[in-house]
């Protein structure tokens, strides 16, 4: 196993790494750091939670320390990810004299303008906000020598292709380009071909240490059975839970239904102000709330290590989102659970797309189907969100005590979730081993 002192890093950097508590480099760090230090273009396939942020921050800081001017630009898909990346640059760059400015939607334009005018060494930005500053003439990118695309797949999924073009056109071609992506969808490869110069590829081979131990399960059930199933899961599951829903309205609806019965639930979506979002994440991290309901965009920025269970209340629109969602649990070698609620027929295509993305042969036609769906009960759906979209002020709570039943360091515990048979449509059995076989293959 490679040790930090074998990566040609300065003694100051080794001290900062020690202070951060990073005992040994993760696989993505072992492979990427030497290539980035050489100044090469590097295309990295890595999951969130693999230590990818430090795998570009550490070598980039080492390369550019001591130089004056704005040399480094990191693009992030969401505000939260940009803030986290900015914080990692601060942690490793500031002590070595590199200043970082983070530019994100929702923050004050004049404040960011002033910060940009102070010639920071590093800019971390979301593409939309950076284009805004470019249009206003608040920033020039002529001096950028290192361009980093973090979570490139996500940026493209979010429709930032045009902004990415605008930004890359303004950066000198003679530069280092680093691209990180959890998945290599064709559009990511296309972008890499157009903006990178003969990149070295780093793909982290799955190993016991780097593969998240996520026990996944799929429940075929009709819409009106989702909320009772979720209630049951929330009641039986002792640890923290992130619930992903497909839209802001849906997040709010799920939160309201749960909130009626439980007071340890909060939510996050893009209609909340930046402050409200930060408060929701901070309170979830601190354990004040045990359950967080989120949209895909918001969920991506949540860096919490001990999430016990990810629930896909709705099958994600894009198969790639499935990987990102479940990546919120099973982080850093810990174990976790992921449960996906899928509606028979309606969600089959989405489930197949996930299977395809994971390189698992799609099962043959499913022939076992649940009984026809009864008419949805509106009481299960909860009231539609009205104008009061702000989170209801919730009383301060004691941090949740994680019970011994969930030990993130230990082997995946047996799911406590028990659902009445009439609640769950049978999972079709396949020659290939059915869904459980598929689950086993996912991380084999
Ligand atoms: P990332 O994949 O960049 O989202 O990182 C996930 C988490 O791993 C963050 O909380 C980092 O602080 C942490 N981390 C990164 N590198 C290491 C390391 N070598 N050892 C321990 N923790 C790390």
Describe it for me?
- The protein has 444 residues and is of the alpha/beta class.
- It folds into 2 domains: 200 residues, P-loop containing nucleotide triphosphate hydrolases (Rossmann fold), CATH 3.40.50.300; 154 residues, Rossmann fold.
- It is built from 17 helices and 13 strands.
- The strands form 2 sheets. The protein has a 7-stranded parallel sheet, sandwiched between helices. Strands 8-13-12-9-11-10 form a 6-stranded parallel sheet, with helices on both faces.
- Strand 10, helix 12 and strand 11 form a beta-alpha-beta unit.
- 44% of the residues are buried.
- The site of adenosine monophosphate has 14 residues, from helix 3.
């Amino acid at each position: 196993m490679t040790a930090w002192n074998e990566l040609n890093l300065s003694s100051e950097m080794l001290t900062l790494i020690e202070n951060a508590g990073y005992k040994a480099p993760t696989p993505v760090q072992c492979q990427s750091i030497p290539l980035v230090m050489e100044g090469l273009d590097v295309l990295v396939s890595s999951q969130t939670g693999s230590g990818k942020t430090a795998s570009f921050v550490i070598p980039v800081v080492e390369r550019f320390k001591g130089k004056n001017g704005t040399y480094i630009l990191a693009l992030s898909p969401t505000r939260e990810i940009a803030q986290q990346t900015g914080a990692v640059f601060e942690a490793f760059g500031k002590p070595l004299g590199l200043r970082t400015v983070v530019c994100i939607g929702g923050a004050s334009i004049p404040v960011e303008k002033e910060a940009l005018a102070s010639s920071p060494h590093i800019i971390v930005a979301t593409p939309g906000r950076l284009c805004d500053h470019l249009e206003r003439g608040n920033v020039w990118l002529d001096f950028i020598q290192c361009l980093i695309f973090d979570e490139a797949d996500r940026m493209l999924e979010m429709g930032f292709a045009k902004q990415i073009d605008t930004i890359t056109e303004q950066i000198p071609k003679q530069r280092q380009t680093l691209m990180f992506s959890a998945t290599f969808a064709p559009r990511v490869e296309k972008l890499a071909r157009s903006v990178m110069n003969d990149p070295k590829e780093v793909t982290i081979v799955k190993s016991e240490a780097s593969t998240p131990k996520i026990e996944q399960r799929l429940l075929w059930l009709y819409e009106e059975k989702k909320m009772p199933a979720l209630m049951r899961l929330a009641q039986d599951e002792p640890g923290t839970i992130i619930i992903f829903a497909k839209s802001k309205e849906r997040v709010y609806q799920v939160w309201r239904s749960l909130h009626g019965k439980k007071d340890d639930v909060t939510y996050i979506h893009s209609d909340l102000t930046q402050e409200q979002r930060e408060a929701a994440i901070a309170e979830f991290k601190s354990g004040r709330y045990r359950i967080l309901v989120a949209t895909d965009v918001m969920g991506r920025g949540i860096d919490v290590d001990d999430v016990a269970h990810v629930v896909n209340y709705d099958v994600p629109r894009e198969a790639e989102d499935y990987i990102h969602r479940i990546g919120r649990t099973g982080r850093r070698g810990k174990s976790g659970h992921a449960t996906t609620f899928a509606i028979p027929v309606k969600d089959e295509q989405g489930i197949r797309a996930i299977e395809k993305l994971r390189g698992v042969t799609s099962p043959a036609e499913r022939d076992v189907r649940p009984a026809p769906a009864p008419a949805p009960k509106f009481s299960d759906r909860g009231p539609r969100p009205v104008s009061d979209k702000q989170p209801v002020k919730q009383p301060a709570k004691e941090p949740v005590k994680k019970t011994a039943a969930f030990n993130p360091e230990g082997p995946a515990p047996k799911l406590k979730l028990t659902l009445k048979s009439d609640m769950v449509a049978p999972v079709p059995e396949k020659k290939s081993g059915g869904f459980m076989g598929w689950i086993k293959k996912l991380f084999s």
